[in-house]
Design brief:
Layout (H helix, E strand, L loop, with lengths): L2 E2 L8 H4 L5 E3 L1 H11 L6 H9 L10 H15 L2 H9 L3 H4 L3 E5 L8 E7 L2 E7 L8 H19 L16 H25 L8 H11 L8 H6 L6 H6 L26 H14 L11 H5 L3
Parallel strand pairs: 2-3, 3-5
Antiparallel strand pairs: 1-2, 4-5
């Protein structure tokens, strides 16, 4: 269940179902308020004045009441404005979709995607509450993520979440996924800068990520073109992510998951394949293995 971020005194489910633009996961809102209250003089005492009467409500009514209170304080403490500013540049693309903000189970799960709320189309933004401690980086992150969704909704981009990643093996597909993330991110930030909006990374930052994702070097001039605002369609971006044959230097070993530049030879892997498969039944010889892991299976 999520909470309304507007000034609605009622705590019934009917009140929360109105077609408003923002829904906050109650736990996300509560954590943001907990983090930000100490930074606003007098806010903690004022929040307590509003919270005290809620403890006298019937137990079943308290969660919704506190969710409403926390949503109001998310607005008062400035985080609601950050979310509004991130969404506003894409109002046309997003249409009447709600923005639903949720906590991540892990930091790597942060990001935005298409979803639904009460059978209505929505943008699902998974966001660490701690990001709201730094308003400018938080705005840049949220704007960047909402821009991803705007691209997904743009027919000219041709986004297809079911389009397969390039690569014959799991490590190759994982590398292609990282390459796609870098190329799409560089394109989004280039377009944000062109509009005078906050970007997640500088052009140099995307170049650094590209060097790691393309150990043999990204396609010539591609990051520069994307950083200037270029946006190839989805299928063309994916085609640029094709992996070199075999594991690339710096790619994670599928067994130990650590990046390695020392891969075992195909002959060495083939000789140990039966023993490796006992411990890693989903592994295939084509996935490769680092030299250090192979020593354990000689």
């Amino acid at each position: 269940m999520t909470a309304d971020a507007t000034t609605a005194p009622a705590v019934t489910r009917h009140a929360l179902a109105r077609p408003l633009w923002l829904r906050l996961e109650p736990e996300w809102a509560a954590e943001v308020v907990r983090l930000l209250l100490p930074r606003s003089p007098g806010a903690a005492a004022e929040y307590a004045l509003g919270a005290d009467p809620l403890y006298r409500l019937p137990p079943d009514d308290r969660p919704a009441a506190f969710a409403q209170l926390d949503a109001l304080w998310v607005e008062r403490l400035g985080s609601g404005g950050i979310l509004r500013d991130a969404v506003a540049p894409f109002a046309t693309e997003l249409g009447r979709r709600l923005l639903c903000v949720l906590r991540p189970a892990a930091q790597l799960e942060e990001g935005a995607d298409l979803g639904r709320y009460d059978d209505a189309p929505a943008v699902r933004l998974v966001l660490s509450p701690r990001r709201m401690l730094e308003p400018e980086p938080a705005l840049a992150f949220c704007t960047h993520e909402v821009a991803h969704v705007a691209d997904m909704l743009d027919a000219s981009f041709g986004y297809d979440p079911h389009r397969p990643l390039p690569g014959a093996t799991r490590p190759e597909r994982e590398l292609a996924r990282e390459r796609f993330r870098v190329l799409w991110g560089a394109s989004i930030d280039g377009r944000l800068r062109a509009r005078g909006l906050p970007a997640l990374l500088s052009s140099e930052g995307w170049h650094a990520l590209a060097r790691r994702a393309f150990p043999k070097g990204p396609p010539a001039g591609l990051i520069d073109a994307l950083s200037r605002g270029g946006r190839p369609p989805h299928d063309e971006l994916l085609a640029r992510c094709t992996c070199e044959h075999g594991p690339a230097p710096g790619q994670p070993c599928p067994l130990c998951r650590f990046p390695t530049h020392a891969w075992a030879s195909e002959a060495q892997v083939a000789a140990a394949a039966a023993r490796i498969a006992i411990d890693f039944p989903r592994w295939a010889p084509a996935d490769g293995a680092c030299a250090q892991c192979l020593e354990c299976y000689r």
